[in-house]
Amino acid sequence: MVSSSLEPLVIAGPTGCGKSAWALQCAQEQEGELICADSRQIFQRMGLGTACPSEEDYAQVRHHGFERLDPRVRYSAGQFIVDTDAFVREIQGRGKRPILVGGTGLYLRAWRFGLEDVLASDPLIRQRLEQERQESLYARLLERDPHSAAVIQPTDRIRTLRALEVLEMSGRCPSALRTTDWQREPRVQAAWVLLWPSVADLDARLRLRVERMFLDGLAEEALALRSYLAEDDPALRLKTPGYCEAFLYLDGEISLGEAKERVFRRHRQYAKRQRTWFQKEAWWRRVCSVNDY
Q: Which of 196, 200, 207, 175 is nearest to 274 (CA)?
């Protein structure tokens, strides 16, 4: 049995809520090490656009899983389970507390319950769906499973394709499958804490984040990432909030002020989708600020 002092702590919440800074503080106070639970922060060359830890943060406590993969590589919830289990064992083996931090609800839910019931991909169905335009695919998903569409961006082709694939293979909405398949005993024991600031507080934090991102060189990072990926962007990394808007600014299509406003709106929309996701999960201890923990 793992000592309660070494039990994993999971800190999640919508983008920009301050979970990374809080997790760093917890790691310092509890002799912990941090594990990435963000589907974008695991990639290299995207540090500013995904708000990765700073060099100072990395120097203060040990981090695992951040900025370690080439952005051309595909990654999945299943691989996240494997990697996170290994990180947890390694950290506990050193007598430290594993602290997961991130806002990718699918990854965290998968780590809690496993993916035994997830359907394998059907190449024929996938090939047929891939011949259609994203706009028509998303419209179909919105009509047939609005609950899944609510947590998937209209431009997120990968997740849209997967949702429709599951729907056609099983005859059931992916959102309904989540409701039933996840209602079972967790595969891991951990403390689950959700940082949940007010909408007004989160908006203020997001505006400050956007200003800081551009000051720190978001536009330059976006340009370098586009040059590196060229046409080879199978996982649509360039669709990450901030990069598209930076490209429009760099190409002279919009002003810097308009680019910042658009990035803020996209982050705000993403935070809303994250809230929608987490609201359906009853196992979280929700706190409005770090002072409530």
A: 196
Q: What is the pLDDT of residues 14-27, one digit of tens each?
A: 999 999 999 999 99
What is the average per-residue pLDDT within 232-251? Answer: 81
Chain centroid offset of residue 292 CA: 24
pTM, entire model: 0.81
Pairing of strands 32-36, 63-64: parallel
**Structural contact between residues 7 and 189, judged by C-beta atoms closer than 8 angstroms:** yes
Please give the domain boundaries of the chain with CATH numbers for all domains. Answer: 4-116+189-198+283-292 (3.40.50.300), 123-181 (1.10.20.140), 200-272 (1.10.287.890)
Three-state SS string over the chain comes to: CCCHHHCCEEEECCCCCCHHHHHHHHHHHCCEEEEECCCCCCECCCCCCCCCCCHHHHHHCCEECCCCECCCCCCCHHHHHHHHHHHHHHHHHCCCEEEEECCCHHHHHHHHHCCCCCCCCCHHHHHHHHCCCHHHHHHHHHHHCHHHHCCCCCCCHHHHHHHHHHHHHHCCCHHHHHHHHCCCCCCCCCEEEEECCCHHHHHHHHHHHHHHHHHHCHHHHHHHHHHHHCCCCCCCHHHCCCHHHHHHHHCCCCCHHHHHHHHHHHHHHHHHHHHHHHHCCCCCEEECCHHHC
Handedness of CA 40, 45, 49, 54 (dihedral sign): positive
Structural contact between residues 71 and 229, judged by C-beta atoms closer than 8 angstroms: yes
Over residues 230-235, the mean pLDDT reads: 61
Owner of token pair 């809520």: 17
37 and 108 Cβ atoms separated by less than 8 Å: yes
pLDDT in tens, 181-205: 445 789 999 999 999 999 999 999 9
